[in-house]
Amino acid sequence: MSFASGRQVTAAVDVPLKKPRPSWFKRATGNIWVRVTVFVIAVLWTLPTAGIFISSFREEAAIKSTGWWTVFAHPFDFTQWTLANYSEVLTEDGMLDAFLNSLLVTIPATVIPITIAAFAAYAFAWMKFPGRSILFAIVIGLLVVPLQMTLVPLLRLYGAIDLTGTFLGIWLAHTGFGLPLAIYLLYNYMATLPKDIFESASIDGASHFTIFTRLVLPLSFPALAAFAIFQFLWVWNDFLVALVFLGTGSDTAVLTAQLNELVGRLGQDWHLLTAGAFISMFVPLVVFLALQRFFVRGLLAGSVKG
User: Fold this and answer.
1) What's the predicted TM-score (pTM) here?
2) Most Cβ neighbours (<10 Å): which of 106, 142, 273, 297?
3) Burial status of residue 296 (CB atoms within 10 A of its CB: 0-12, 13-18, 19 or more)
4) pLDDT value of residue 266
5) Angle, alpha carbons 109-114-118 (nearest 5°)
6) Backbone angles phi, psi at 223, to 5 degrees
7) Residue 104 Cα distances to 99, 192, 235, 296, angstroms
8) Distance between CA 250 and CA 145 in Å, rounded?
9) Residue in 99, 125, 239 with CA at minimum distance from that of residue 186
10) How far apart are CA 3 and CA 300, in angstroms?
11) What is the rounded average pLDDT of the residues 247-268?
């Protein structure tokens, strides 16, 4: 019996074993494929934006005869680039006024709901008052109300109080549409803040307003930035609400309404349409890139924790 066992052990020892690959090799290989996949997705995602950007600097004849990618055959041939498209759009087609109107609409329509929602979220999270649960349930219920259902009643109300066609009217409309989501995100974030800091501040005699301004707001900046991106992009790219409450007059038209007018009047002038489109894309890109490091952290904290 022992002799047979010895032969089996010897045979087992004689068989060469395949060495497993080290863990660092597996991690490096996995990281390479992840990076390649992310790079390919990023390239495909930015191709339309790159095409609009390049086309906005090309002449009309070049856009109609060749594709935008042909510029890479002679990238340093500066005769194929022009700023005339932007000059014509900004000076002759009213895009500059529409750009300023969009800023005038978007900035207050972002700041106002964030301010109100921050106070409301703190009250729901850390202040005890009668009916708090019922009020918060109503706020959550407003998230599922379609925006289109509110346009006609609001328009009738605005007509009665003479707010139609005013910037104040559209500020209030965007504030009402954005408040439920803002309160929900900020509440879930503020509710996860450590309770000890509130108890310590209360023992030191701090009021709710002091706690809110000096503790809660600085700690809630990621959530505030996440909602600011959402609200800014939504208001800036909005066409329906601006069309209903502001119209398409030259004094109040925003960029989306002006772009719609360009498509109707200049449907064949792609050199002007691409310039106008990139003007409307520039500000949202700057806002997102400036606040992107807070975006994922604030969004996850405001929608998952609770």
Assistant:
1) 0.76
2) 106
3) exposed
4) 54
5) 160
6) -70, -40
7) 9, 35, 11, 27
8) 32
9) 125
10) 66
11) 75
